[in-house]
């Protein structure tokens, strides 16, 4: 559900080891494949993390269709359930990496920098239609050299989820700005029984808010979130909890995450992603809820985007077949099958339109946000920056210390860790 929120950073050991092992190599020899010669099949390994049973069924359906259209290629699916990135990195170091694998945008800058990924530009043909991808999502997998190292398979932005019954009883409208959200949250709050707003006090959900006043969370690959402009932008979130008492985090009401808090009726509003829609429909079938675009800040629309790409192992000996697989899975036909049930949103605009998600009452606000979203990604040191931010922001959110002090300490610690790498 929140796989991208728990990713770990790349290690300097990996960087050194892989860079040392990636020099040279005979490209033609690496690309020499049987690819149907003499009736032999090429087996391509595809590695990813597991999803729920419905998602796994959809993926298998997509792969089955691929194999029907490419009878010379067999796909071996490998599901890595725990510590996904650690396992992938270890296998890449050992020369046993899969041909194709999932890569979260959060992890992409660091892995691209090591040189273990194959640039995909050289394989692209006009009919692949790169311009059909939502630009922020595609750009997340570009290297500093301008090459594309992955094509995004799906994504989610954030949207405002609101309880229709509670809104009607309180006689309030869906807020369109953050100032309106704060006032609406006050009217919807009923002591500690129901909070107007459920907050996820972590950088993965607050990044776009943090930068809304012109400050930067990361500058030159180092933490800069103690900037007074960042503190000013985030202070209202803390104030809603401590002063207004109209907001709480899920753990304060015995819930594990925002969707559960919202579904249980302990929050009238939460900001969550597409993953919350099937969860709420399945777990709380009687809940009447709606979605809207995230309220604007300072007159500007903003949200987050979380995306995952298919990437190719540079050391793959089956690059032609690997590209056939990637181009099908991220092409219009494969993407339509994979995203057909709405568990994930298509990164291609044409597929979103064909499946009607741009007009869907619950998903349209999420689709609308794709064009202006801030992708959850910022340089190779973001994992270190995130950990330090989250540790200290929570202490400020809970009232243990002022926000500016908490973020100053977090920034100092983060940059010390970065300097000692």
What does this protein structure show overall?
Helices cover 40% and strands 16% of the residues. It is an alpha/beta fold and 421 residues long. The protein has 2 domains: 3-156 and 305-375, Periplasmic binding protein-like II (D-Maltodextrin-Binding Protein, domain 2, 3-Layer(aba) Sandwich); 159-301 and 379-419, 3-Layer(aba) Sandwich (D-Maltodextrin-Binding Protein, domain 2). Strand 1, helix 3 and strand 2 (73-79) form a beta-alpha-beta unit. Helix 1 runs parallel beside helix 4. The longest helix has 17 residues, at 53-69.
Question: Could you provide a short overview of the structure?
Answer:
It comes from Parageobacillus thermoglucosidasius. By secondary structure, this protein is α/β, with parallel strands linked by helices.
What radius of gyration results from the CA coordinates? 22 Å
Question: How confident is the prediction overall: mean pLDDT?
Answer: 91
Helix fraction bin = 40-55%
The number of helical segments is: 18
The CATH architecture assignment of the largest domain turns out to be: 3-Layer(aba) Sandwich
List the secondary-structure elements in sequence, H or E: HHEHEHEHHEHHEHEEHEHEHEEHHHHEHH
Shape: globular
Structural class estimated from helices and strands? alpha/beta
Please give the alpha-carbon distance between the first and last residues.
31 Å
CATH homology superfamily of the largest domain: Periplasmic binding protein-like II
CATH fold name of the largest domain: D-Maltodextrin-Binding Protein, domain 2
User: Main sheet?
Assistant: 10 strands, mixed
Number of spatially distinct domains: 2
Beta fraction of the residues? Answer: 15-25%
Give the number of DSSP strands. 12
Q: State the CATH class of the largest domain.
A: Alpha Beta
List segments where confidence is low: pLDDT < 50 over at least 5 consecutive residues.
Answer: 1-32
Signal peptide: 1-20
InterPro entries: SBP
Pfam families: SBP_bac_1 (PF01547)
Family: Belongs to the bacterial solute-binding protein 1 family.
